[in-house]
Design brief:
By secondary structure, this protein is of the alpha+beta class. It has one domain. Helices cover 47% and strands 17% of the residues. The protein has helices at 4-24, 34-51, 93-101, and strands spanning 55-57, 63-66, 70-73, 78-81, 88-89. It has a five-stranded antiparallel beta sheet, with no helix packed on it. Strand 4 (78-81) and strand 5 form a beta hairpin.
Length: 103
């Protein structure tokens, strides 16, 4: 079970790793930063935990299944209905929860 304390610990750890990676690659114009992406995922996941909405992590780890009705991606904030293939955009996790889950 994910708790806010555990998520916050992971965010701090990944932010530190992201800073180290940024220092190592200061001379490069373009480089991949998986730690920054993980921080974005965790911050979005934190919104779901705070809201109290029922969700579970998808097998891929990059999305969550919300109340067994929606699939929500943690980085790009796109969502779709379970069983459908059309993706929709949202402003963010809190807006998605407000408008579609609780709306």
């Amino acid at each position: 079970m994910l708790t806010l304390q555990r998520i916050d610990e992971k965010i701090k750890l990944n932010e530190a790793e992201s800073d180290k990676l940024s220092e190592r690659n200061y001379h490069k114009d373009v480089y991949s930063d998986p730690f920054y992406k993980e921080v974005k995922r965790l911050k979005t996941l934190r919104v779901f935990v705070e809201s109290g909405v029922q969700f579970k992590l998808d097998d891929s780890g990059g999305s969550v299944i919300v109340e067994e009705r929606f699939v929500f991606t943690l980085i790009s904030h796109k969502w779709r209905n379970v069983g459908k293939s059309i993706w929709y955009r949202s402003k963010g996790a809190s807006d998605f929860i407000k408008r579609f889950v609780r709306g």
